């Protein structure tokens, strides 16, 4: 009995390569692409629950030793956008964050640490290093909130980049998008919106 193999399959078999699964990031809580009130800030004129949404990821690149999560609103009328959530040094074996994980350092995976956001020292998110939900100016229309997960070949991003652990999200953004170079093995992102 003869077995037929397509040209593409034969090429993959001949080269001994299997195509890697894509690196993806998603949220079951934001599946519709819009923030429900439970994830909106409670403060600055907003009356949400300020609970961080659950996140899930898959296809983490081979060689990943840690992950970094950053959430940014590029539409905020600041001239530089607005940072809502940063989490550094997430263990590579982690496959997501549970709903509410960003509301307390104790809820993050062991080894991970919450970084600052633009609600720093306002008390709006319960404490520095925690998630701060969306709260755009009233009547301005919907803003975009970009969730980005970076896969790194280093254990601790600040140490590898030579920056302080207390660095701003913009400084970390520079390091992740330019400074670390090949140590950034991949990034995955999605966008959700909210307006009032």
UniProtKB/TrEMBL annotation:
Keywords: Protein kinase inhibitor, Signal. GO terms for molecular function: protein kinase inhibitor activity. CDD domains: PEBP_bact_arch. PROSITE patterns: PROKAR_LIPOPROTEIN. Residues 1-20 form the signal peptide. PANTHER family: PEBP (PHOSPHATIDYLETHANOLAMINE-BINDING PROTEIN) FAMILY PROTEIN, UNCHARACTERIZED PROTEIN YBCL-RELATED. This is YbhB/YbcL family Raf kinase inhibitor-like protein. It comes from Duganella levis.
């Amino acid at each position: 009995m003869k077995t037929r193999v397509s040209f593409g399959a034969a090429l993959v078999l001949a080269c001994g390569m299997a195509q890697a699964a894509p690196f993806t990031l998603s949220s079951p809580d934001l599946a519709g692409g819009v923030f429900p009130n439970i994830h909106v800030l409670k403060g600055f004129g907003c009356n949400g629950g300020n609970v961080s949404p659950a996140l899930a990821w898959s296809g983490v690149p081979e060689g990943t030793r840690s992950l970094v999560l950053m959430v940014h609103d590029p539409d905020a009328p600041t001239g530089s956008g607005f940072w809502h959530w940063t989490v550094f040094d997430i263990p590579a074996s982690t496959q997501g964050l549970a709903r509410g994980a960003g509301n307390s350092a104790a809820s993050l995976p062991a080894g991970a640490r919450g970084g600052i956001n633009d609600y720093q020292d306002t008390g709006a998110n319960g404490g520095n290093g925690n998630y701060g939900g969306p709260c755009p100016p009233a009547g301005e229309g919907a803003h975009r909130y970009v969730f980005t997960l970076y896969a790194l070949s280093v254990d601790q991003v600040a140490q590898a980049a030579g920056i302080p652990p207390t660095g701003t999200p913009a400084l970390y953004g520079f390091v992740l998008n330019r400074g670390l170079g090949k140590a950034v093995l991949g990034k995955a992102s999605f966008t959700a919106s909210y307006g009032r």
